[in-house]
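Troubleshooting log. The previous run stalled partway through. Resubmitting the same three chains, unchanged.
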Amino acid sequence: MLPFDSLISATQLTPEIISDIIATTDNMATNIQQQGRIDLLDDKVVALLFFEPSSRTMMSFQSAAQRLKAGMVFAQSASATSIEKGESLEDTIRMVESYSDIIVMRHPRPGSAAIAAGTSKVPFINAGDGGNEHPTQALIDAYTIAKHKGRLDNLRVVFGFDSLQSRSIHSLSTLLAQYPNNHFTFTGPAELNPSTDMLNELKSKGAQCEIVPEVNLSDGYDIVYVNRLQEERFNEPALFEANRRKYRLTQDKVSGTDCLILDPLPRIDEIDTAVDCLPNALYFKQASYGVPVRMALLSMLLGKAI
Amino acid sequence: MLPFDSLISATQLTPEIISDIIATTDNMATNIQQQGRIDLLDDKVVALLFFEPSSRTMMSFQSAAQRLKAGMVFAQSASATSIEKGESLEDTIRMVESYSDIIVMRHPRPGSAAIAAGTSKVPFINAGDGGNEHPTQALIDAYTIAKHKGRLDNLRVVFGFDSLQSRSIHSLSTLLAQYPNNHFTFTGPAELNPSTDMLNELKSKGAQCEIVPEVNLSDGYDIVYVNRLQEERFNEPALFEANRRKYRLTQDKVSGTDCLILDPLPRIDEIDTAVDCLPNALYFKQASYGVPVRMALLSMLLGKAI
Amino acid sequence: MLPFDSLISATQLTPEIISDIIATTDNMATNIQQQGRIDLLDDKVVALLFFEPSSRTMMSFQSAAQRLKAGMVFAQSASATSIEKGESLEDTIRMVESYSDIIVMRHPRPGSAAIAAGTSKVPFINAGDGGNEHPTQALIDAYTIAKHKGRLDNLRVVFGFDSLQSRSIHSLSTLLAQYPNNHFTFTGPAELNPSTDMLNELKSKGAQCEIVPEVNLSDGYDIVYVNRLQEERFNEPALFEANRRKYRLTQDKVSGTDCLILDPLPRIDEIDTAVDCLPNALYFKQASYGVPVRMALLSMLLGKAI
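Second attempt completed without errors. Output:
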C-alpha cells in the first residue's frame, strides 16, 4: 500500500502518499471511536526502540500498537542496553528484527534511522533521529491541517520561534513545499532564523519564503506553527528572557483570527495557557492525532491497512 | 457504578461504595482463579504514569490491566519525560488522555492527583501522590479486613510503628473511622506518633483513639497494622537501633492471638520472618488482593464491572 | 511435561529433556511463521523481573510471551524497586507470584535464582544470575547445534576466547558433556583459560578437553563458539590490544571450513563483520532462536506445550 518498506524521511512523502495515509488515518480514528481497539495487527509484534527519552512519541506509538492489538517488545533504556557494551547499531537491528514484525526507533544520532532501515529485514519507522528527521510528526501536522483547513495547498503559514533547530518545522515545511501556492513566514529571534540551505531547499520546491522579526496574525494567515525557545541558545539570560516574552502567543495576538495554532509540544512558554480555550487552539487535538496517524502507518507498512 | 469518575482520596469512599467495590473484587478474584484472564476491558487502553518508583503498586496495576485484557501504555520514568523539559502536569494529562481510556498516576508531589483528575477527560486513579493519599491501598486493606474478619465495624485496631508519616495508616484509619465502634491504638516511638490534626479528624468521625508506648496484642485486639521505621527520622543511629529492636513483631508477641497482622509492605525489620508461617500473618495475602481490587476499580470507573 | 517447575541450572537439562524442548521449539518456530501469534498462553500473565540490564534476553522473552499472547508485568529497573528499600528477594518473589503465573528473573547475584525458585509458588525461569548460570542461553545454543549439525554428540567444539568468565561457555559445555564423544578445545589468552574445576567437571562427565593457545579451524572442527574479551581483565592496554587482534575470527580463518560459528552476542571485536555473510556464520540465526526456545519453555513449564 506504500511504495516503501521503511519511513525514514519526510521527503519520501509525496502528495499521493500523504493523501492515502490521511484516508487510512480517518478510518483508524473512526475505529478507535466505535470499537476502542481492533484486531488488525493481532498477529504482529511491534518493537519500540527508544534510545532517547520521548514521552509523547513513545506513548502514542504504544497506544497505536495497543489499539490495533499488536504485541509489543521494548528495549530497556539506552543506558541499559548492549549499545553501551559497544554493539553496533546494525547488530542491534539484526537482533530486534528477529523478535518483531516491525521496528520503531528513536535514536539520538542523526542518520541512524537510514542505517537501521538499511539493515532491517522488517519494516522500519523513524521516530526521530537526533536533529535530523521526524517524519511521523510531519504527517500528524499535515493531517491536522488537512482536517481543519480542508487543504494542504494555498496556505499562508507562520513558523516560529526557533526554525533553525526544529526538526518538526524542517520536516513540515519540506512536506508542504510540495503543494502549490504555499507561503511560509518565518519569525523569531534573529539567532534562530532558518538556515540559508533550508530556505533554498524550500524555494527550489516552489514555496515562497520570507523572514520577518514580527508578524501580525490577523493579516490573513491560515496557520501559526510554533515551538519553544531553548535557553541554552542564548549567550545571556537577559537576552533569552527578552525573547521569551516577545515570542509568545497570547490571547490578544490570536483571538479573532482564523489562524489555526499548532505546536508539536511540549509547550513551555511559547503559548500562554489562556489561549488553550480558543477554538483555533489545536495543539492538543494535534497531539491526539498521533494515535490514528501511527495506527495508519503501522498497518500500511505491514500491508494490512483497511 | 461509582458516583465519581476519578478516585483521588480515601475520603471519597463511603461504606456503601466500599461495599460495592468489595463485591466486585470478589467477582474478580473468582474470575482470576477460574479463567486467568477475562475479556472485560479488551476494548480499553490503560495509561500507567509512574513518575516515582513503585514496584508493588505498578506491578499490581499492570497485572490487573492484563488480567482484564486491557491494552497498556507506559510513561518512561520521570527523569525521562517531558516533565523534565518543563511541561506542566496539566499539559501532560491532556496528552495522555488522548492516548488512553483511563489514567493511573503515581506522582511525588502531594496534591498532584487532584490537579491531574481535574484536568483529565478520562477517568483517573490516584496511585499515590507523595505523602498525601494512596486510596487504592486503603481499599486493599479494607478488603483484607472484610474478608478475614467479616466486618469493618466494631474493630480494635493497633497501628504502628510510624503513624506520623504513613499515608497508608492515614488513609486506612480515615476509611475505618466511618464505621461504628472502631477503636484505634497508635503505638511506636514518640517521635512518630500521629499528628494532633489526624487524631482530631479521626475522633470527629467517631473513632475512639489512644496513643500508647507499648501494647500487648493478646489483649483482645482484632488487627495489628504495621509499617517500617525509617532511619533518617532519628537523630542518632543508636536511637534508631533501639527503636528498631523494640518495635518489631516477633512470634512471641503475635502467636496465639486472634490479631490479624497486616503490613502494606515492603517489610524491612518491623516483622520477623519467623512470623510469616503463622495463620494470622496476612500481609502477603493482603498484597495479593491488590490485583482483584484494582481490577474492580478499573472496571467500575470504566462502567464495565460485572 | 517437564520433570521440574523451575529452570535454574543447565545441569537440570538431561538429553531426554533437551530432546523434548527441541521438538516443542520446532513447533513454536512453525507457529510463528504460519500465524505470527498463537493463543496458547492467552490466559496467563508472565512476570519479567530484570534487575540487571539485558536487551537480548529481555526482548526475546517479551517477544516469546507476546507471540503466545500472554499478558506481561514488568518490574521497573532494579534501582527503581523496593529492593533498594531493603526488601529481601524472598519477599519480592512472594509479591510477584501473586501478580503472575510464571516468573522470569535476571539478577546480578550468583545463586539468587535458586533462592527465588525455592520461594516461588509459580514456575520460575532463571534468565541469568550473575556469573553463575544462564540455562536458557545453553538451550538456544543446543537448539542451534541440533538444527544445523543434526546431532549433539560426536562433536569437536572450539570454545574461545574467554572461557574463564563466560556463563554461556560454562553452561553449554556442561550441557554437551552429557552426550557421548564430545571433544572440547579451549583457546584464548592464557589469563582466560577455563578453571581447573570446570575442566575436571567436564572430564568427569566424559568430555575430552584440551587447552591450546591457537587453533586451526580447518582441522576438522564442527563448531567454534566465541565471546568477546573484556578490557578490564588485562593489566595493560597493550596486552588487551594484542589479544584483541590475535583472538578474532576473520574470513581467512573460517571460510572454506565446515565449522559452524556461534556467539551468544553482543559481538564486539571477536568476529570481523566480513564473516557475517558466510553460510556458516550462524550467530544472528542463533539469536533468533531465542524466541521459539523461550516460547517452548514458558509453555512447557505452564503445562501447555503443543
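Takeaways: The radius of gyration of chain A is 19 Å. Chain A has two domains: 6-133+290-301, 136-287.
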